[in-house]
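Support request, please re-run this one:
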Amino acid sequence: MENNENLKKEELNNEDTEKVTAESVVAEVENEKVDNTAEVETTEEAETPEATDELPPMEVIAEVETTYDYRTLKYCNMYILKVKRKSTLIYSIMAAVCLIVAIVSFIRMEGNGKWLSLIIAFLGLWTFKNIFTEEAKVDKSLQNFFRTNAPFTQRFAFDRERIRVTAMVDGEEKQADYPWPYIQEIHMIPEFFILFLNGGTPVIIDRDESKLLKGTKEELEQIIREQSALKPFKSYDKSFVKKMIDITYYATLNQEEAIVEEKPEVAEESNEVTEDNKDNK
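Re-run finished. Output below.
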């Protein structure tokens, strides 16, 4: 009897362990499905967000609006140039190498060979000059961009699981959810948080308190700082922009062109009326 009872207990224990193992495998498979789905969706929807109704509703702690205008893109571009691409360091090294090679070749070469060293020295000086003209080039590029493009707005909702991006695409409001593990790096400057997704796409979060739609600035920054402890994080107190310029946006240009086009039509109509009046007289 005792042996039978022991056998029954062992069978029950084996069944329980099999159930636990099976449940854990199912859970792992389901997690893998969710992770793979999230990766595919976020990769495809990085530029064109689409609604993600399959995900459970999120408990929004903070929501902020970022306007992608001259100010936002200027700070983001200057930061990427200076920090991510290390343009100042690269230009400095290239200029130094050119000048050293030019000096050595000028001393060792004779005759026409000295012209080559002068050309190399000129290239070094030109490279060094780029350090001081980077911001002007960014301004010119943004001016050209906003001549044909209007500023646009995106909303970012945060909880401790994900970021939800809401944007207008072809006149329709669309959403995309980015789980926090999808964020590769978090960078902070006085004006913005810049979050880099897989693939290096930047998500720019305005730190201006007037841009908050829900929650407080402290709640927003607390969430981001909590996540920054789990991934590469850089913080800078200095500003990477020295000068802001006035930009005429695409929408303003269109309005001005429309007004200019309307004026001659009104003038022609008034002239026709006056001529008719003269004939009647």
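Residues 68 and 152 are 5 Å apart (CA to CA). Confidence is low (pLDDT under 50) at residues 1-53, 255-281.
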